[in-house]
Amino acid sequence: ITEAESLNAPTIRAGRIPQDAPKLSLLFEDKNVQEESRVSKVAVTKKSFAYSRNRDENRRSNSFNRRSALRKSQDEDDEEEEDDSQPSNPFKTASERLKEDERKRLKGRREPSGSSGSSGKSLGGKRRFNPAASVKESCKKKQKSSREEEEEKERHPIFDDERMDHIEERMAELILSEILDSNVRVGWQDIAGLEFAKKSVMEIVVYPLWRPELFHGIRRPAKGLLLFGPPGTGKTMIGKAIASEAGATFFNISASSLTSKYVGEGEKMVRALFTVARCFPSDMKVIFIDEVDSLLTQRSENDIEASRRIKTEFLVQMDGAGNDPEERILVVGATNRPQEIDEAARRRFMKRLYIPLPNKAARRKMISNLLHDQKHSLTPQDLDIMALKTKGYSGSDVAGLCSEAAFGPIRSLSDIRNVDVANVRPISLQDFESALNGIRASVSDKDLQLYKEWNQQFGSF
C-alpha cells in the first residue's frame, strides 16, 4: 500500500469513529441520554425512600410522645387521687385552689366514659363507650327475662305441690304429654253390646263422680280394672269412652312410656306417673295401659333386674303401704294374654272383665253404624243375613268386612277419573257376599276356649 492510498483510506483503527459515520455517533448519543435518565430515576427513588423513612420515623416519634403524655397524665391523675384521699389542707393559695378546681372539672368529664359498662379500653387503660355492646347486652337481658316469664306461664300448677319435690321435672313433663285429649269423642252408644262391661265401668268411674258421698269406706270403688279377651273386641274403645264420657283425666300409657335404656330410669318413671296423677287437679284420674301383659308379666328367675324393679315399683304404687285408700285413681289394663300377667298384679286388678266376641245383635248394630254415612241398598233383612254370616267375627273383623264391601261400587267403575259421585251405585248385599271371601274371622275356637277357662277361674262375670 502506497502512502497516497493510506491517506485516502478511512481510519477505523484504535476504536476511532470515522467522520463519514454520523449514524453511529447518534447511537452513542442516545445511549448517553438513556444512562442519564436512569441515573435521575434512581436519584428520585432514593429521595422518595428517604422521605418515607423520615415520615415513618416522625410518626413513631409522635406516637411515642403521645403515649408518654398519656402515661404522664395518668400518673398525674393517680397522684391527684392520692392527694384527694389525703386530708385536705384548709389553708390554700389562690393558684392551688384553681388547680384543684381544674382537676375536679377534668375528673367529672372522665367519669361518664368510665361508667358506661363497656369492656373496651383505649390507650392508657381508660374505658370508652361502646353503644353496640350496651344495646346487645340490654337485648340479651330482655330476651332472658321474657323467656323466664314464658317458662313461668307454661309451668304446670302441679309443680307447686310439695309431693313433686322429689320428682324430676323432665319425667313429669313426659307423663303430662301422655294425657289423652278429650276432643276425640267416643260415647257408650258407639260401643255395640257389652252391656255388663259398660255397667261395671259406670259403677267404678261414673257413679263415684256423680255422688262421691255414697262411695266411701267399704263401698269405695276398685282401683284396678282389667279388660281381657280376644283382639279387636273393643277393649281400647272402652278406655276411650271412659275418657270421653266420665270426664276424668285420662293418662294413656304404654310400655314404651315407662321404660328407658338407662338403669334406674324405669322405676322413676313409674313413680312419677302415680305422683303426677295424685297431684293433678281433678276429681278422678284414670291410668289406661294398653297391652299391660308386656309390662306386668310373671316374675321369674330369668328376669332382667331392671324389668323386675319396674314391676315391683308398679305394684307398690298401685297398692302399697303408703297409699291413701280414699284417693280416686283407677288403673285400667287391657290385654289379649291374661294368663301371662303376674299373680300380684292380677290381685290388684280387682275387677277382671271378659270382653267376648260380639253376638248377633251387636254385629248387626256394628254394620248399621258403619254404613250410616254411606249410600247402600241393604234392607233390615239383609242386615240380619249378614249378622248370621259373620258369626265368630270380632269387632275389627266386622269393620274390615264393611270397608271391603264399600270398595265394590268403586271396582265396578269403568273410568274413575270422569265419573260423577252421584252416579256411583250404592253398596249392595252382593258386595258383602263378595267381601266375605276375602275377610275371614281372625280368632280361632281354641283361643276362645282359653279365654273362657281363664274367665271361669279368675273373671268377675
Automatic annotation (TrEMBL):
GO terms for molecular function: ATP binding; ATP hydrolysis activity. Residues 35-158 are annotated as: Disordered. Residues 75-85 have a biased composition (Acidic residues). Keywords: ATP-binding, Nucleotide-binding. Residues 94-112 have a biased composition (Basic and acidic residues). It comes from the Eukaryota. Residues 221-359 form the AAA+ ATPase domain. PROSITE patterns: AAA (PS00674). InterPro entries: AAA+_ATPase, ATPase_AAA_core, ATPase_AAA_CS, MT-severing_AAA_ATPase, P-loop_NTPase, Spast_Vps4_C. PANTHER family: AAA DOMAIN-CONTAINING, FIDGETIN-LIKE PROTEIN 1. Belongs to the AAA ATPase family. This is AAA+ ATPase domain-containing protein. It comes from Vannella robusta.
